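Hi support team,

I submitted a single chain yesterday and got back a structure, but I'm not sure I'm reading the token output correctly. Could someone confirm the output below corresponds to the sequence I sent? I've pasted both exactly as they appear in my results page.

Thanks,
R.
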Amino acid sequence: MSFFRQFACRLTIGVDQRGRKALLVVEEGVRESTQSWRELLLNLKKRHMNAPQLAIGDGALGFWNALNELWPETRCQRCWMHKMGNVLNRLPKSSQASAKRDLQDIWQAATKAQAAHAYDAFKATYEAKFPDAVECLVKDRETLFTFYDFPAEHWRSIRTTNPIESTFGTIRHRTRQAKGCVSRQSALHMMFKLGCAAETHWRRLRGFKQLAEVVEGIKFIDGIKFAPKEETHPPSTQKAA
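Hi R., thanks for writing in. Yes, this is the structure output for that exact sequence:
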């Protein structure tokens, strides 16, 4: 077993109001540990980071528990790629292809109502034969649909953790070539430098002009900015005395 297979690293990326992505943290830690994630988030707070509007992640319970303690107002979005993988792993291979299409119908729906309809259809189709797979989907229902409350231009970036996965894929490839010939400290330095190099090629978030509206708390419904209709009053019909 190589050194890097035993090495756990946490990678965090943030986006500012101008849509610029930045590498925030590269450090060793325990994925499922609440304390480990708490220390990471406290470090960000010490660096004067404000409460983020949205956090996207997989099912690492330690992260969500620590986030709720320190920034309870932050909205949560579960990664659809991880969720699909978790659900499909609970299905026989013969059913995975059709189930994958049905899951894609949920998170690729144009509106939250359409997504809920596809969600109910998936549940009705698979619950009797594969209750474990359906339970895996059901338990995170609310945090799977959070992205509908944000600008549609952002959906491609916030439905999954792909921005981190693609970046870490490059780091993982390089560290595999190094095998077990480095220390943990040198491994972290290598990951940090590789992350910084990747950062120079990151594109700004699509729809970054809407980020200011998100920060200001403007409401979005199905990805579209909500504009409440102004109340109109009928003209006065009073008669002169």
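A quick pointer for reading it: The CA atoms of residues 88 and 95 lie 8 Å apart. Let us know if anything else looks off.

Best,
Support desk
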